[in-house]
Amino acid sequence: MTGSYPSVAAFIQAERPEIPVHLLRPRRIEAMARAFVAGFPGDTLYAVKCNAHPLVLETMRRAGIRHFDVASPMEIERVAQCVPEGVMFYHHPAKTPGQIGLAWRSGVRFFAVDCLAELEKVAGLTDGNMRPVVRLAIPKGSGAVYDLSTKFGAPPEIFEAVLRRAAGMGLKPTATFHVGSQCLDPQAFRLGLELACRSIDRSGIGIDWMDIGGGFPAYYRLTRAPPLPAYFEAIAQAHRELTAPRGIRLACEPGRALMAEGGSLLARINLRKPDAVYLNDGIFGGLTETYWGKDQLSLPFRLLDSQGRLKAGPAGSFTAFGPTCDGNDKLPWPLDLPENAAEGDYVEFNLIGAYGREMAARYNGMASERVAVIDADFAGHQSVEAF
Ligand SMILES: *Cc1c(COP(=O)(O)O)cnc(C)c1O
């Protein structure tokens, strides 16, 4: 199971793992969560999909997070186990009757909807205490690496119709949107708030609560985004001008920004060739998101020898292949590793706490799911000070 070590070197010396290992850093998770709880002008929900490990949920709880964005029965059960007093928001806009029933019996009262059909489906399986969370789509090009409004979210006319229908059913609707993941421009949140307020005014339905989604960035090697406090400040100002005067409280539901720094991935070099390394993990395992994000998600990394000591020196450019027999199993960017990189060394990729282990498949019988706990931070990549 999960071992706990003061440092990555101590872990490597103790275990010399041949399988990939996700190194969780509860101290860092707690620091990021506390930064959100203290800095965001409203409630912070944790978007469970980016990392549902029990230790992560327990650490969020310790940091003061009590609200959770969930999207499946597994995530609901996990939160119910790890944070029994947690308040859950079922923020998946396309649910089955069985999923709705299970969520309702588990105490979930907030359900995302982005069309009349889903509103009526959920309302028909619940009672007057159900709170519809009506999701508004955000136009493309608002500054995020991933657009999340092509799949979910209602255009303004439908958003307004769903709000009115929900109120007509005697329900108290709330609103949400998601600017897209890895959003590089704080003003995207203001734009979302402006659009939502305009639609809410047009609908004539008063709401008391609005969830402005996730999308806060993590700081990858090539990320050019303002620091998190700049996002909090832009949102606080928009709140003072737009939502507070309308009596609306804010919430956010970050995944990536809360968790990316909370975990790294320890991958072993299984074979070294002159210009290539063959790693024991890749784009079908813990590095899946790298395939989609390409340079935008270029991960900080460091090379450690088989004793866990940092290896430095003049760097060469290496193609990095993953472990499966699939020719596509290759990182989208070369690794500039020291020339003396050797079989049995480890590459530690940082910022893999979000969308790392959760996305891993088991292609070729190769899993990326082992977890170990490390006290020490990954040197040099902290976006907020440890407390
Ligand atoms: C994935 C997701 C999030 C988290 O997004 P990040 O970009 O990781 O912050 C929040 N809300 C919903 C509804 C999501 O699907």
Automatic annotation (TrEMBL):
It catalyses: L-ornithine + H(+) = putrescine + CO2. The keyword Plastid does not apply. Its EC number is 4.1.1.17. It is an enzyme of class 4 (lyase). Residues 261-351 form the Orn/DAP/Arg decarboxylase 2 C-terminal domain. Keywords: Lyase, Pyridoxal phosphate. It comes from the Bacteria. The modification N6-(pyridoxal phosphate)lysine is found at K49. One of its GO terms (molecular function) is ornithine decarboxylase activity. One of its GO terms (biological process) is putrescine biosynthetic process from arginine, via ornithine. Residues 28-260 form the Orn/DAP/Arg decarboxylase 2 N-terminal domain. The active site is at C325 (proton donor). PROSITE patterns: ODR_DC_2_1. Pathway: Amine and polyamine biosynthesis; putrescine biosynthesis via L-ornithine pathway; putrescine from L-ornithine: step 1/1. One of its GO terms (cellular component) is cytoplasm. Its cofactor is pyridoxal 5'-phosphate. Belongs to the Orn/Lys/Arg decarboxylase class-II family. This is ornithine decarboxylase. The lineage of its organism: Bacteria, Pseudomonadati, Pseudomonadota, Alphaproteobacteria, Rhodospirillales.
